[in-house]
From TrEMBL:
Domain Tryptophan synthase beta chain-like PALP as annotated: residue spans: 81-385
GO MF assignments: L-serine ammonia-lyase activity; threonine deaminase activity; threonine synthase activity
Higher taxonomy: Bacteria, Pseudomonadati, Bacteroidota, Cytophagia, Cytophagales
Keyword Lyase appears in the UniProt entry: yes
EC id: 4.2.3.1
InterPro entries: Ser/Thr_Dehydratase (IPR050147), TrpB-like_PALP (IPR001926), TrpB-like_PALP_sf (IPR036052)
Entries under Gene3D superfamilies matching the protein: 3.40.50.1100
Keywords: Lyase, Pyridoxal phosphate
The protein's name in its UniProt record: Threonine synthase
Gene Ontology terms: biological process: isoleucine biosynthetic process; L-serine catabolic process; L-threonine catabolic process
Length: 397
């Protein structure tokens, strides 16, 4: 990579509500659709057509997610807040028992700044916020999103206010404080944190960087979809397994596929998308199998996979739509299985992964056993982060 290489300009044209079609200026700060009947997440739209951004041009671009800057929302490079996020490796899993008959790949997000793929989303969200004049931001989070927000805000000179459940493992809280964020511990779950963060944010004028209520975290996370295509030589896997919390990554990857098709980079084939949830927080899984278009609020208590403890994702409708359109499915994994998975992967593959990622390995084995995944199929497990921050809840043996 040439560090002097200037990323090219953004092709962003506007923000759009996918539900009512209302459009919004990307030169203004927005959260969700202002139509009270809809209040949907807003999606960034770009001026895309074959030829406007050539995949051959990627070779000269930075080895970070900013190699895709024409399809990212930042218009002035001086506002780009980057800590080197993205362009993470795809590794073949080779030694685990149960890999026979399939090629299984691991996209490993653990090397990202702050140890998870949350850095991708916060990099675009905080860059755009800075470009639009934000001085202070707030977020409710049970883990990685808060740390990532705090780090990018530190770099941007924006004051971060994070609201986290008391029972969040200590390391997730400590990193926020070290990055200079103002931490509020809440006696309750993520929903209680959201309520308090909204109230305090509104009172104090802090910009809310909430999952899928802020339009640009999705844009950072979608770069995972671009990378999967580029790193797999433009032939997408047959199946992608994703650990669903708020669903940003799942929706982002799907959005990237559509954008790449419009750019002429890939065809119309799509992987089957699988949502993996914790057993204690399985609203999407239930809704999918009961053929509902929205999920119920489900929170049956603690899980070691704090990234999956999102009782009713704000964008649940869109998550369910992607699972159906892609002919995917939804499955749950319990904490004991996640812990076993972490240990298997560490011992056989040399990777200390987060419980959310370990859940994917267990889900793969179950779907294989049910023949939902067939011999010969190419499978990608979207490992969202490192395991190092989670160890206080893991029995070491
Ligand atoms: C936040 C998080 C998730 C869930 O991500 P969404 O995009 O909100 O679905 C999964 N794994 C880890 C490690 C996380 O931090
Ligand atoms: Zn709308």
């Amino acid at each position: 990579m040439n560090i002097l290489h200037q990323p090219s300009t953004s092709l962003i044209s506007h923000l759009e509500c996918p539900k009512c079609g209302r459009t919004y200026l990307h030169q203004e700060l927005h959260t969700v659709c202002e139509n009270t009947n809809c209040q949907s997440s807003l999606f960034a739209r770009y001026n895309l057509s074959p030829g406007v951004f050539k995949k051959e041009s990627l070779r000269a671009n930075p080895n970070s997610m900013w190699r895709y800057s024409p399809v990212l929302p930042i218009e002035k490079v001086e506002y780009m807040i980057s800590l080197g996020e993205g362009f993470t490796p795809i590794l073949p899993l080779q030694n685990l028992d149960g890999l026979e008959e399939n090629r299984v790949y691991w996209k490993d997000e653990s090397g990202n700044p702050t140890g998870s793929f949350k850095s991708r989303g916060q990099s675009t969200a905080i860059s755009k916020a800075l470009e639009l004049g934000v001085k202070a931001a707030c977020i409710p989070s049970a883990g990685n999103a808060a740390g990532a927000l705090a780090a990018y805000c530190a770099k941007a000179g924006i004051k971060a206010h994070v609201f986290m459940p008391k029972e969040t493992p200590q390391l997730f809280k400590d990193e926020c404080v070290l990055y200079g964020a103002n931490l509020t511990e809440v006696d309750g779950n993520i929903k209680d944190c959201s309520k308090l963060a909204s109230e305090e944010g509104e009172k104090n004028g802090w910009f809310p960087v909430f999952t899928l209520k802020e339009p640009y975290r999705l844009e950072g996370k979608k770069t995972m979809g671009y990378e999967i295509a580029e790193q797999m030589d433009w032939i997408l896997p047959d199946v992608i397994l994703y650990p669903t919390g708020g669903g940003t990554g799942l929706l982002g990857i799907w959005k990237a596929f559509d954008e790449m098709e419009t750019l002429g980079w890939i065809g119309s084939e799509r992987p089957r998308m699988v949502s993996v949830q914790a057993t204690s927080c399985d609203g999407i899984t239930q809704a999918f199998h009961q053929h509902q278009t929205e999920s119920e609020y489900v929170d049956k208590g603690f899980t070691i996979a704090n990234g999956l403890r999102v009782p009713k994702p704000y964008a649940d409708e869109y998550i369910l739509k992607v699972l159906r359109e892609s002919q995917g499915t939804a499955i749950t994994i319990n904490d004991a299985e996640m812990e076993t998975g972490m240990k298997e992967i560490a011992k056989k593959e040399g990777l200390l992964v987060c419980p959310e990622g370990a859940a994917l390995w267990q889900a793969f084995k179950k779907l294989k056993e049910k023949s939902w995944i067939k011999p010969g199929e190419k499978v990608l497990l979207m490992n969202t982060g490192s395991g190092y921050k989670y160890l206080e809840n893991i029995e070491i043996n």
